[in-house]
Design a protein that fits this description.
This protein has 195 residues and is mainly alpha-helical. The protein has 7 helices and 5 strands; from the N terminus they run αβββαββααααα. The strands form 2 sheets. The protein has a 3-stranded antiparallel beta sheet, with no helix packed on it. It has a two-stranded antiparallel ribbon with strand order 4-5. About 6% of the residues have low confidence.
Amino acid sequence: MITSELLTMCRDFSFCPDCLDLRGQFDDGESGLSAKVQLCGCWRGRRKQPVSALPYCGEPGELATLCRGCGTELLESGGPLSVWFCDTCETWVDRLNEFSGGYLVPVGHAPVTPARRAQLQPALLLLTARDRRLRAWNLRDLGFEQHGDVSLPLYFDVMSRQPLDRVARFADLCETFGLSREVGYALAHTDLMDA
């Protein structure tokens, strides 16, 4: 959920023009440092220092991320129990997992055994690959150049005047995991508990 405090902390964030991850400086008010840095995927892949040696925290180094379902909500990140979906998308993903008869789409971080992590690896790879496509889609639909360095506050400002179709994005998530878009539209509009 977007909180004014979280968005204020992320006021210097922008989308990397290459990988489209969020990146920027922030002050968490907890460390003795004046600012920490959330690195984008370009830099995370190149670092040679261990995570603990760098001035950032979390997943690795995430203060905030966008919902992996719709990309329209800013979520706190970096903790061991961080969620990957906003409340609306998490409800839809729960329906999707129930519909599929298993745990098709992971909803966030949770302590898991190495065996369970290996089982989830294909789903995590699909979700990660889709993240960039979702961000590119959202930036394009909001009228930004796909590879421009767009600030996070500007992204939310434009979205407040030009809302994105969250259901279409959920239908795309379903398609990413091998189901039809129609299933996604139906799940977003149907409460399976009452069916």
